[in-house]
């Protein structure tokens, strides 16, 4: 879980959650606070929640009954967690150490027999945030790694939805955002205006030669529609910028002196001044002058990084999402904080990339 809004959703058959659910997972984190698991009952009156508070792993059941181990587990090491309901008891075991069992009343037990799928790893949807706050549960996900999620002893299959929960890496890592492809993308701004001037800087370490890097605007391929857009992408090892300001497209490209996929970071700079686009990749650069009658890129659209939703694929010159690492992005000299983006979709790690 790489950000406060990261989550994995599992849509389980209703009968699987009844009557004595048994869950297990491994967690590695340095966060003292955050939600690990959440499941609600019909009507939202009761819940089953696993979370961290002051470094301790706590299990919250029914309306607000809790058990926990006194050890702290936010040490950056892997820890195994088992939690379950057993008739009127609920149990928590961390690294083989069992907390004192919790006890449910008959009414609480009855309410806990009405679980409604789905269940969530990381944060729960915003519709539950008011309930989480009322029960003193964290609404934000723990920042760290989860693995080996099992229910009733069976390994869980792929989640039905992934919101910014990316891969974790063993060993040395580097700062940056890791995109794993498969629909992973970020919306930095819901209504981004390119305008007459734009400065875009970032470092990229891709794993493929062709992929979308950034897009904003109406990129309809209909020749009768003169949309406004700006697209930055890689095509067979070249970096390309394509712009339309309502009077026709103009394109500039640069082939770097070394391969983009050589395992090193490459610095990309895109500068737009009215109808001129200048593109630099490391020490190679190029520029293009567009139609002089239009100097303003009139966009008020989402600014996508790493990919776009499937509905936009056919409108773009490349359909492949980006796979690799992006770091130190600045737009108009303002650092981009990816963990505060408008939307995070698919499998990403917002904190780090493999070393």
UniProtKB/TrEMBL annotation:
Pfam families cross-referenced by the UniProt entry: Laminin_G_2
InterPro entries reported for this sequence: ConA-like_dom_sf (IPR013320), Laminin_G (IPR001791), Neurexin-related_CASP (IPR050372)
Residue ranges annotated for the Laminin G domain, each copy included: 1-168, 175-353
The name this protein goes by in its record: Laminin, alpha 3
Natural source organism: Nothobranchius rachovii
Lineage: Eukaryota, Metazoa, Chordata, Craniata, Vertebrata
UniProt gene name: LAMA3
């Amino acid at each position: 879980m790489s950000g406060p809004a990261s989550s994995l959703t599992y849509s389980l058959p209703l009968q699987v959650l009844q009557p004595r659910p048994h869950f297990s997972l491994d967690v590695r984190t340095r966060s003292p606070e955050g939600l690990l698991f959440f499941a609600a009952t019909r009507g939202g009156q009761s819940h089953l929640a696993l979370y961290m508070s002051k470094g301790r792993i706590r299990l919250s059941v029914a309306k607000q009954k809790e058990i926990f181990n006194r050890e702290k587990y936010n040490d950056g090491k892997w820890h195994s967690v088992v939690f379950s309901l057993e008739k009127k008891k609920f149990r928590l075991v961390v690294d083989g150490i069992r907390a004192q069992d919790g006890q449910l009343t008959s009414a609480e037990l009855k309410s806990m027999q009405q679980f409604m799928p789905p269940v969530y790893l990381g944060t729960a949807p915003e519709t539950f945030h008011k309930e989480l706050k009322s029960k003193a549960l964290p609404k934000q996900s723990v920042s760290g790694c989860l693995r080996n999620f099992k229910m009733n002893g069976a390994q869980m299959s792929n989640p039905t939805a992934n919101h910014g929960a990316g891969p974790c890496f063993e060993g040395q890592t580097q700062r940056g955002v890791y995109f794993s492809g498969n629909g992973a993308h970020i919306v930095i701004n819901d209504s981004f205006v390119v305008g007459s001037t734009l400065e875009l800087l970032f470092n990229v370490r891709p794993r493929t030669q062709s992929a979308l890097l950034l897009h904003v605007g109406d990129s309809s391929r209909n020749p009768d529609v003169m949309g406004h857009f700006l697209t930055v992408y890689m095509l067979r090892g070249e970096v390309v910028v394509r712009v339309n300001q309502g009077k026709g497209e103009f394109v500039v490209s640069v082939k770097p002196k070394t391969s983009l996929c050589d395992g090193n970071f490459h610095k990309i700079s895109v500068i737009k001044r009215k109808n001129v686009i200048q593109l630099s990749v490391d020490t190679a650069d190029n520029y293009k002058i567009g139609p002089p009658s239009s100097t303003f890129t009139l966009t008020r659209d989402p600014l996508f990084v790493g990919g776009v939703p499937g509905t936009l694929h056919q409108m773009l010159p490349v359909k492949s999402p980006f796979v690799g690492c992006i770091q130190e992005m600045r737009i108009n000299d303002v650092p981009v904080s990816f963990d505060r983006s408008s939307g995070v979709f698919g499998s990403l790690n917002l904190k780090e990339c493999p070393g």
